[in-house]
Amino acid sequence: MKKFFTPTLVVIMTMLFGMVSSCGNNDNSNTNSSKTDKPPSLPLAKGYVANEAGGSVSVIDLQDSLKTTSIDFSNSAGTMFMAHNVQVAPNGKSVWVAAAGMDSSKTNYLIVIDPNSGTIKEHVLLG
Question: Could you tell me the pTM of the whole model?
Answer without folding.
Answer: 0.61
